[in-house]
Amino acid sequence: MNNGGARRMNGGGEEDDDEDYVNGDLDAWERTYTDERSWESLQEDESGLLRPIDNKALYHSQYRRRLRSLSSTATAARIQKGLIRYLYLVIDLSRAASETDFRPSRIVVIAKHVEAFIREFFDQNPLSQVGLLTIKDGVAQCLTDLGGSPESHIKALMNKLECSGDSSLQNALDLVDGYLNQIPSYGHREVLILYAALSTCDPGDIMETIQKCKKSKIRCSVIGLAAEMFICKHLCQETGGTYSVALDESHFKELILEHAPPPPAIAEFATANLIKMGFPQRAAEGSISICSCHKEAKVGAGYTCPRCKARVCELPTECRICGLTLVSSPHLARSYHHLFPIAPFDEVPPFSLNDPNHKLQRNCFGCQQSLLNPGNKPGLLVVCPKCKGYFCLDCDIYIHESLHNCPGCDSFRHSKADKE
């Protein structure tokens, strides 16, 4: 018998059957559209017709807005940034993380974007280190120690995604404070908490723990996946961090990636220090030695500390024997662009190629692709304020997020040097 007949026969239970029909008896094509929320990807144009949202233009507008806010903050005052960061990522694995308001569940979305964040973090901060902590059953546990290997962190996280019990914010902060108190004074101590619960089950006074974190110069930031909580907001305000609540998966991705670039250093903690570093040599292929990191005999791959000759597996790290900070020269070079960031490009308003007052180059200076849309109409593009070179949206993002140099300015500088 069909669903309509079943509802008529049940009489008073019609409302319950309606709910079952909506939740469990949808056809396959209906479930697909319900899960993907495809109606959110449509917008109404000027004539009242529905058309797909231009995701590329939307993403670029969000990127430009974020770039302008960062550049305006940097130009308002010369801000010192922490290039050597020690970040603990705290992930809430309580039962609240298994909720399905994020598809397919909160924890799946968290794991997906934490992996992307870890890779982006090490790309933006080659001299920094990350550690992972989890909160489950009211207990905070250290998943990985501070280290510079993204693969080891990701592998450890993917093996521990079971959700259960309550969440305890105080236990997590106490554990983080114990680890970060051992960090040298030149290192910037940070905590990023991905919090899914709407409560915290703590054994003591969490306000005292927050003040202890503030005294230890630990910058605490929280990204919520449910609703705003006073205690999380108070924690961020006291320690100089940021607090945000994700609206959906794309918003969560945007929020977590905002923590990849180094944040401004807290004024009273931003002290200048000279740091002694070592540049180890790569071990010869086929050589056998005991790794000081894992206390195991390994063949070939590894680096030798220039001070104590101990073997380490990866860079950057701190020598377990003599305590010397070990880096490579590319790590220092990749950190340079945070000190002198490239200026944001100016948006070019749309105009016709037939306008005699504008001379628009037809190809992007970076990728040499055409800047014209069908019909010889110029698309969205930007121009460098220094060299006046025009770039497409993809090159604009690539230059500011990966290359960190303007190809037009560099070519102009080289051509000028050749003439001299």
From TrEMBL:
Pfam families documented for this protein: C1_4 (PF07975), Ssl1 (PF04056)
Keyword presence, Hydrolase: no
Biological process according to GO: DNA-templated transcription; nucleotide-excision repair; regulation of transcription by RNA polymerase II
SMART domains given in the database record: C1_4, VWA
InterPro entries in the record: C1-like_sf, Ssl1-like, TFIIH_C1-like_dom, TFIIH_SSL1/p44, VWF_A, vWFA_dom_sf, Znf_RING/FYVE/PHD
Signal peptide positions (record): none
Zinc finger (C4-type): 305-322
Compositional bias per record (Acidic residues), positions renumbered to this chain: 13-22
Record-linked Gene3D superfamilies: von Willebrand factor, type A domain (3.40.50.410), Zinc/RING finger domain, C3HC4 (zinc finger) (3.30.40.10)
Family as reported in the entry's similarity comment: Belongs to the GTF2H2 family.
Name of the protein this chain belongs to: General transcription factor IIH subunit
Organism of derivation: Theobroma cacao
Lineage: Eukaryota, Viridiplantae, Streptophyta, Embryophyta, Tracheophyta
